[in-house]
Amino acid sequence: MGAKLVPTDPQVCCPSVLAAPLDEHDAEDLARVFAALADPVRLRCLSLIADAGEICACDLLDPLDRSQPTISHHTKVLAEVGLITGEKRGRWVHWSIVPARLDAIRQAFNKR
Asked: What is the value of pTM for the model shown?
């Protein structure tokens, strides 16, 4: 079995922005997530991964029309903010979304 890449803690994020003012740390964490999602290639990448359930990085090259190093950069950014997780299998990384992290971000916009 391959090695897990970029372990994440989905519970780190995100208090509600509507329930009370965010503290500095929470605002910075949420802003990093939004910055990662602000790039159209990363947003499409996340969408492709979510649609597939799990996808090899090699299968992102054609739909995103980007090179392997560029795909690696974008997946790294998404993984660093905890939106996706990867497992290295041989030469390639297989990516999947982190549902709990997406749910936590979605909950940031609910009044609790």
From this structure: 0.81
